[in-house]
Each structure stands twice: as C-alpha cells, then as structure tokens.
Amino acid sequence: ATTEIYTLSLHDALPISIGYFPTLKTRIVYPLFKKWGIKPSKWHSTDDCTGCGACSTACPVGNISIVGSKPKWGDNCTSCLACYHVCLRHAVHYADMTGKKGQYLPCQRILSLPECGGEKQKDGKYLKTPDKHYK
Q: Which terminus of the chain has a lower count of CB atoms within 10 Å, N or C?
C-alpha cells in the first residue's frame, strides 16, 4: 500500500474571497440567521454513525458531545457544517435537507484520529493511507 504524509493548512485548502456587502451580511444578516435560521435540534446522526467522535472534534465551538456512542448537539451551533463534512460515513444530517448533498473532503486534523486510521509520527505529522478513507 502506498502511504503519503499529508500536511494541509486551512489557507491551502480554501481560497478566501470577500463577497458583496460583507459588513451588511456580518453585522445584520448573520445575527438574524443565527437567531431564527439555525435550529440545533435539527442536527442528528443516522444509524450509519459509529460514534468515532470526528464530528465532535471538528466542531470549532465545542457544541457536539458524544453521548451513548452518538453525537448530541448543544445550543451553541453556528451551522458551520464542519461536523457534516468530516463524517466519513456521511451519517451527520440536518433535518432532511442534507441526505443527498455532497461533502467536502475531511480535513487532516480529523483524518488523523486513530478512529479514522491516522497514526501520529515522531515528527508530529500524520501518516495515513488515502485509499482506506475514500472508497
């Protein structure tokens, strides 16, 4: 099996572009969206969930805890979708809207979890076999 060392920073993976009306969107639209558009109770995992904790680790605000080997979302969700995109089994869903949607490739931080096959090397980098994650 071929192995490679992956090192990827957020800036390498995502080009940053400032769109139209950033102040309006940040100061007015987002607070309204956060108050009425985000319902943490609509996040759930399917039976495909293995309880690996990748979603919990990916959450930038620490809003997801693993309870009884399943993720449980708290009330501080920002709807960043990190939990959705890092689930290797596509077991995280928002209501019935994400079941047939695609995912971005999981970030290295999550793929490095032992549950996802990652192994930390002495130099601090993670070694993994790509084909075992994307079949």
A: C
